[in-house]
Amino acid sequence: MLVAEKNALSEEIESYVGKYGNDRSALLMILHEIQKKHRHISDFAQQEVARLLNIHPVEVYSVISFFAFLNSSPKGRNLIRVCQTIACDMQGKTGLVQAIERELGIKVGETTKDNKFTLEYANCLGLCDVGPAMAINDQVFLKLTPEKAVELVSKVK
Amino acid sequence: MELNIKKRTGQVIFSEYTRGDAVKKTVTMSRNDILFELKDSKLRGRGGAGFPLSTKWMLTSAAKADEKFLVCNADEGEPGTFKDRVLLIEYPELVFDGMVVGGYTIGARKGIVYLRGEYEYLLRPLEDYLEEMRKDNLLGTNIAGKKGFDFDINIVLGSGAYVCGEETALIESLEGHRGEPRNRPPYPINTGFLGRPTSVNNVETLASVTHIVMKGGAWFAEFGTSKSTGSKLFSVSGDCDKPGVYELPWGTKISELLNKVGARDTKAVQIGGASGFCIPKSQFNRTLAYEDVSTGGSVKIFNESRDMLKVLKNFMEFFVDESCGQCTPCRMGNVKLLEGVEMIEKGQYTFSYINKLKDLGRTMQLASKCGLGQSSPNPFISILENFNDEIFNCGNGGTNGR
C-alpha cells in the first residue's frame, strides 16, 4: 500500500470516527462504512480503527470475522447474494444460481477473474413473499426468473 | 426497489393513525397512566417470546441509573418473517412514535433502532423520516412542548447475523463486540446497553403501543383471546395464491388463515419460522395464540408436492450457518442434527441413531445458552415425528405397515 493511499484511508476513517464518535459502540457503523466503500476491511484499516477507538486490533478483527457482511480479504467489486432460505428455495433459487454461475463462469463463493463479481448465498433476506430474491450490493431484486437475474447482472457496470 | 405498496386496512395495527398524535397525547399523561393503559391492554412482546410489555417497561422505568436506553429490535432474521420490513416501509410513524412513547415511559433519552444489514436499503429513507420528525419537534429537546422531555433516535445497521435478534447478542453487537449472547440474568432491563437499563422491543410491539396510547388499553384487549390480546401481523409465504403480510386477531384458526391466503392441497404449515414447529394437516384446527400455537408471525405453507426432508435439511443448514459457536450444545448439536438429516437422505441411518439425535435435540433445548440453540431442534423433532410416515415409510406406514 502506498503512503498516499494509507494517508487517504486514515483520513477517511478519521472522518467516520468524527461522525459516529470514538466510543467502541460506534465500531459497527464505522466498519459498515469502510466495508461499503472498499468492499473489504484491510489490515491497515483495522489497525487504524483500533487506534482511533483505543482498542486492540484483534478486537476489531474478531468483530469482522463474526459478521457475514464484513470481510477482511478483498472480494469482487460487486457482490451478488442469492437468498437460499426455504421460501426462495421453493420458488426456484437453484435455477437462478445455476444461470448466474453459467453466465459468469464461476461457482458460488468464487470471484470472476476480472474481479467484477463475487457470487454468494445469503440467508433469509426477508423477502419470502416476493421471492426468489437476490441482492446486488445494497439493492434487492424480487420475483426473479433465471433470465431476469442474468439480465440484471449483465447491467451492472 | 419495487416493493408493491398498497393501502392496507386492519382492525388494530393497520387502523388509521396520523404521525405525532400519540406523542402529543403522551406528554399530557403521566408515566403511570401509560403503564396502566399498557397493563389493561395485556400487550405481550411480538418478537415471539411474548413477555408482557407493561412489566418490562415498569421494571425499566423503576431501575435507577443516570442513563437508560430504548432499543427497537428490527433484526428480523427468522426465515419467513418480513412484517417488520412492511411496518418500517409503510408505517414508520407507528414504530417511531411508539419509541418516543417508550422513551417517555421508561425515562430514556436515547432510542436505537437496530436494523438488520439485509434491510440496508431502508436506512436512508428512515433517516430522512427521523429528520422530518425532528423538524416537527417529535424528536429532540422539549418534545411536543413538554419541558424536560428529550429523546432522539439513531439507527445502527447490523451486518448479517441471525443470532443478533436475541436481545443480549444485539446489545453486545451494539457495544462493538461479537454478537454473542450473554448469560441471563442479569437482564437488559437492569444491565443492558453500556451496562445501563435497556428495554429491547420488537418493531410490532412498539407499533401496537402507539395505537394503545391513542385508543386505550381496554379497546386493544377487545381483540383476540383473553390471554392473547390484540391482533398479530402474520408473514405468510410458501405455497399459496396471496403471500404477504396479514393482520389477524389472535385466536384465528390455522385453517381460517389458509383459506384467507388461498392455500390449496396444504400438507403442512411451519409456524414461527425455522425455529418454530411444523404443524401437519391433522392439527389445522389449532389456534394461533400464545396459549396454543405461539409465534412471532411467520407462516410458511407447504403443499402436497413438497419433500419435508428437504425442507428440514434447509432449516438445519440455516442453523449450522447461523449458530454463533459460543456454546457447545448449539455449535456441535446443529452439525450433528444436519448429519442425521443427510444420513436419512442417503438411506444410511438406523432408527436407534435417529432416536439418539432426537434426545440430543431435547438436550440442546435445555442446555443451549440462548434461544437459537434452544429452538433449533424444534423443526428436527417436529418434522421427523409429524412426517415419519412420509420420511421413513414411503407413505405406507398408515395401512401397509400393520
Main beta-sheet strand count, sense and barrel state of chain B: 5 strands, mixed
Tally the helices of chain A: 7
The largest sheet of chain A is: 4 strands, mixed
Distance between the termini of chain B: 56 Å
CATH superfamily of the largest domain in chain A: Glutaredoxin
CATH class group of the largest domain in chain A: Alpha Beta
As for the CATH topology of the largest domain in chain A, it is: Glutaredoxin
**CATH fold name of the largest domain in chain B:** Rossmann fold
Q: Can you tell me the CATH class of the largest domain in chain B?
A: Alpha Beta
Low-confidence stretches of chain B: none
Label the CATH architecture of the largest domain in chain B.
Answer: 3-Layer(aba) Sandwich
Structural class of chain B comes to: alpha/beta
Give the number of domains of chain A: 2
Mean pLDDT of chain B: 93
> Helical stretch count of chain B?
16
Shape of chain B: globular
Low-confidence stretches of chain A: none
Largest Cβ-defined interface: A-B, 41 and 57 residues
Per CATH, the architecture of the largest domain in chain A is 3-Layer(aba) Sandwich
Strand order of the largest sheet of chain B: 6-5-11-8-9
